[in-house]
Amino acid sequence: MSGHSKWANIKRRKGANDAERGKLFTKIAKEIQVAVRAGGPDPDGNFRLKLCIQKAKANNMPADNINRCIQRASGQGDSAAIEEFFYEGYGAGGVAILCEMMTDNRNRTASEIRYIFSRNNGNLGETGCVSYMFERMGEIVVEMAGQDEDRLLEVVLDAGAEDVESGGETATVYTSPGDLEAVRAALLDAGFELASAEIIMKPANMIEIDDAETAAKLLKLIDALEDNDDVRAVYANYDISDELLETLE
Description:
Elements: H1 3-14, H2 18-39, H3 47-58, H4 63-76, E1 83-90, E2 96-103, H5 106-119, E3 123-124, E4 134-143, H6 149-159, E5 163-167, E6 170-175, H7 180-189, E7 193-203, E8 207-208, H8 212-227, E9 231-236, E10 238-239, H9 242-248
Parallel strand pairs: 8-10
Antiparallel strand pairs: 1-2, 1-3, 2-9, 4-6, 4-7, 5-6
Helix pairs in contact: 2-3, 2-4, 6-7
């Protein structure tokens, strides 16, 4: 499993405190609003909204919060228009970074993201400078405690998955965006527990980071970006060994 995936799993387990949960709920609320405006309020006919609701429930977001977000986005309450776009740049070690943004104030967000890059040994680049290094894919994180890896492979490959990265407590299954729901459903039918299922930007090639100082600078930048309320997700093409990650954790 790549260092990027492992670090994301470490932070997922640590994100249970109230402050982190509040930030996560804010981001999920934006995702729900954007999904509703793009495809309507019915999750049965809006796969993006269906994924958002699943993500909200997996993170214990109250049902009332979810319903209010859907109602606001449907025109039943006041809510500012939210823009979606990407910022691109580089971190320590020449690692490519792609930030998926959701904001109701682009000028504020631009200033904040530029500041985060400059303060954390990074460089904010021009549009297109790194996006060609990433591919849009479905990603499913599977809880592997007590599960058989061979059975997992059989289930997901039969359902149309393209790749599986396994190791430790979870396995990550990659699909084409169009096959994400079929693979997710097959896993649930087979009794697997899922930590997440969503559309991501997967790096085509990885850069190995084996220097502790460089790794620390890079992860500090990524953590700072992910802590920003207008950042939905951060994708980066780094690989850090388990041993080095443990020293940094």
